[in-house]
Amino acid sequence: MSDVLLKVEGLTRYFDVSKPWLNRVIEREDRQFLTATADVNFEIRRGETFALVGESGSGKSTIAKMIVGLLEPSAGRITFDDQEMNFASGAAMRTLRRRFQMIFQDPYASLNPRWHVGDIIAEPIRTFGLASGNAISREVGRLLDTVGLSASDAGKFPHEFSGGQRQRIAIARALSSRPEFIVCDEPTSALDVSVQAQILNLMRDLQDEFGLTYLLISHDLSVVRHMSNRIGVLYLGRLVEVADGKTLFTHPRHPYSRMLLDAVPDLTLSGRRRRQVEGEIPNPINPPPGCAFHPRCPHAFDRCRQEIPQPVDADGSLAACFAVEEGRI
Amino acid sequence: MAQPLLSVRDLVVEFPTRRGTLRAIDKVSFDIQEGEVLGMVGESGAGKSITGAAIIGLIEPPGRIAGGEIRLRGERIDNLRPEALRRIRGRRIGMVFQDPLTSLNPLYTVAQQLIETIRTHIDLSEREARARAVALLDRVGIPAAARRIDDYPHHFSGGMRQRVVIALALAAEPELVIADEPTTALDVSVQAQIIDVLKEICAERGAAVMLITHDMGVIAETADRVAVLYAGRLAEIGPVRDVITAAEHPYTRGLMGSIPTLTQTADRLVQIPGSMPRLNAIPQGCAFNPRCPEVFGRCRVERPDPIDRGSRRQVACWLYDTAKAEEAGNV
Ligand SMILES: Nc1ncnc2c1ncn2[C@@H]1O[C@H](COP(=O)(O)OP(=O)(O)OP(=O)(O)O)[C@@H](O)[C@H]1O
Ligand SMILES: Nc1ncnc2c1ncn2[C@@H]1O[C@H](COP(=O)(O)OP(=O)(O)O)[C@@H](O)[C@H]1O
Ligand code: SF4
Ligand code: SF4
Ligand SMILES: [Mg+2]
Ligand SMILES: [Mg+2]
């Protein structure tokens, strides 16, 4: 059994954001494509939590959806437990689908409001034929108990629960097909901090109990720091740095990672002097040429405007930056 | 202590509904001194925005201020006629909301909106007002302000729009700026820029700030004092450093422990069981009592009022009632 559970190679996804055909003809415009994810590579090892962090529009959810098979890649390969995911083959996808699940940001939108909680949780059990008859409701009760709710909640509807409780229901549902791998896309972004703490603790407990592997997606660096073994930083659809948590937070190598860390307000009142962060994220339809970060980068030089940097090894980090590559920073 | 710039006493805000009256703010009191930044934190629904709206007279009917007083430099502003309130709003109290588009009119250029605001409140010619508007935009960090000022709001990015809103809030040199989640809708890297601009420019002009946010990190870096709201009531108020490093109210302590930080990697976060009650189900006594690890008999019966703890700090919790402490023999 290989150590790597999930491997992503050259993962790329375009979206056609062209105006309707007639408008294009009249306004003499070409088709327009938005590159949501470009040439992304990473591996997730069994039992670890790998995090993707990045600002809005950096491509986090697009990657998550491709991994769980909700969105077809434009290019690249996804390998799960040494099996390449084949979007064309429904049967092959179905067997793989049982083994991974996804939890979304908005626990309300992801739960069918007209279904009883018990049916929501039981659906994957039925779909994959994991149990039948009374065994299903026993299993649902056990899952509700596992996530800190009670078996009697099975007969209620999602609207009868608070945001945090709804996220528990979503987690119970995700666990019901006994997956090995769970993709969590901003699982606590819609929750208050005290409720977020409950959910993050629960996620950790479940990981210990069931040996789960997580892909955690978040824009919150503190959450990522708390939860993850390794972290990938995304900027405009590209992975700019991958490192283990400690390395990234103590010695970020990529200028964008550094900027992002500097932008986080400091709760510990250490008096840490923050560098002024410059500029905003450019339009992803026409990203800057070369390194997309160059208009905001304090270390940019000529090469950055012409070539796209590839990841290079830098003291335990993988960083896609020419200044790092050439030893300038 | 000098007369506070803003003084809120026993504020009560109620919303009548078909199923009874909801009390969104229940006897909240606090002061803001001149030039001070008061942070207001709490979980969603705690009453932060309603408190801000009450101060500027923007509670939506049938919601109403049902009790208490709000004074600006000693003068009551909670019972003013709409037209008198409008003069205070913008002139003496500026506002910045979460979504920049609620403060900006999409049909007018930034110049038109800034000049109109300036001239409504200050006696200046069109040209003088424009010059002042350009200077202000420049100050909040809009590049090429003299040219960009004639653009419409939708020509600006989210962060730039919020800069424009800050310029608008400060256009008439108010004494107080109420900023309600001014960075929540923005990207992390842009949030820091906006907080910096807001903080600097208010300090420069001597404007006090009431900064409403659910982000303790922002409060830690920005505020002088912080008020913690829970279920429409004030749990704790005091200097930022004291509250963050040595919270006294059990709720604040739990809240601080539940926030992951960049440096700590403890296995588990502190966990407060349950969640904040809805307005129609606030428990008797201390509103926090069903979740409180230190709850005792009195908490379930009597509501604690804020208790003075020295150095402008107050905590609404029976643990700090001296009578009780004496009783327990641990003064
Ligand atoms: N169906 C779609 N059609 C067109 N563009 C899309 C589509 N889905 C995503 N995009 C674009 O792709 C880019 C990446 O989007 P994605 O949702 O992956 O970002 P994200 O990192 O998850 O952001 P957020 O933090 O806001 O959730 C964005 O520019 C987005 O606007
Ligand atoms: N128009 C309204 N009608 C009824 N209840 C309201 C209304 N506006 C706000 N509330 C309630 O008042 C409480 C405080 O709201 P708010 O001040 O917006 O909270 P926050 O701390 O998140 O800013 C909440 O419970 C909210 O549901
Ligand atoms: S490649 Fe150049 S522009 Fe990009 S991050 Fe590195 S130094 Fe900056
Ligand atoms: S008054 Fe009682 S229940 Fe309320 S916070 Fe203090 S100890 Fe806890
Ligand atoms: Mg997303
Ligand atoms: Mg609010």
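The pocket of iron/sulfur cluster (ligand 3) is lined by residues A 255, 291, 293-294, 297, 299-300, 304, 309, 321-323 (CB under 6 Å).
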